[in-house]
Predict the structure of histidine kinase.
Amino acid sequence: MEIVDILVVDDEPGIRSGVARILKNFSVSYPFLEDDIGFNVIEASTGEEAIQVISKSVPAVVLLDNKLPGIQGVEVLEYINKNHPDILVMMITSYASLELAIKATNIGAYDFVPKPFTPQELKSSIENITKHYFLRRMTRKLHSEGKQVRFQFLTILSHELKAPLNAIEGYLRMMQNKEAGDSIDNYMDFIDRSLSRIHSMRSLIMDLLDLTHVESGKRNRNLREVDLNLIARSAIETMTPLAIQRDVSISLEADNDVTLFADSGDVEILFNNLISNAVKYNKPGGWVHCKIAKSANEVRIEVSDSGVGIKEEDISKLFQEFTRIKNPQSKNVTGSGLGLSIVKKIADLYGASIKVDSKIDEGSTFTITFPIPTGDLLNDSI
């Protein structure tokens, strides 16, 4: 159980001890919490003592009486608002007035509970303020993580685009300076390498567009029954020229009339990325087998290959953005490292699961299983 500190500032010992007694075995649960939240009550009898306590260890919540000996509660509230704005303050006072409530709210009080209060009233207020504390903390954490992820993404993206541009510039300058002589034939290797880099950058840009469309949630999906066999055959035809170059055969095994309620663009990306990877990370003379099957409860797509395979410890990394698993047999294979992360995001949109079976030098099988949802479930999940 997580424990948060609550500072009770009141000159009445009975109020302080009463709050401690009421909250001693009280805890707050929330559907998003892994553990319940309990409370450690700290006491202060004056505003000056409260400021000393806060300066040493910042509590999550302060229950603050306004009528105190010495400085008043609103002055302590002003100190908190100025120096520790993360603290949630709940005013507790016998002298509640609209004027005081407005003033306290304007300088940062979260809630205002007049005394005397019952144990149930206190527990209810503490439950509300604790949930607010948790949600605010989670919001800040997610915001911070989002910034970090975006920074990492842009750093990697900059590198992925800068490296081929530098290479192409280098080849062009060598040609500009005629470092290999006057014959254009002497520069064919530079030209081929430049075209290869341009092809890689175009692939990266196309994958980024797919990723942006998937993540933005703004793309209008045209959900309808799509023919998986038709889309699979189209993906295979698209990849056939590369498969011929690499001496890899592609086959399709499918049940008749397998359809899925989905956006055809999403399904095209799935097949294109899976089959493309199976061809690229294969061996001369290898094969790629695509299988589509439908049962009463699910639609299953399998793409198997006789390729280089993936180490078991690397499988969990496959769906991370810009991840390319390198081994001696695939070190010259180009790719953006985004294809499988896009596949995963699309599968998530449909509540589908992805399973990867692989053995080094024997090949891999990617299996995507789509549940066949009811109408209501479909509307909730997409």
Remarks:
- Confidence is low (pLDDT under 50) at residues 377-382.
- Residues 224-371 form a domain with the Heat Shock Protein 90 fold (CATH 3.30.565.10).
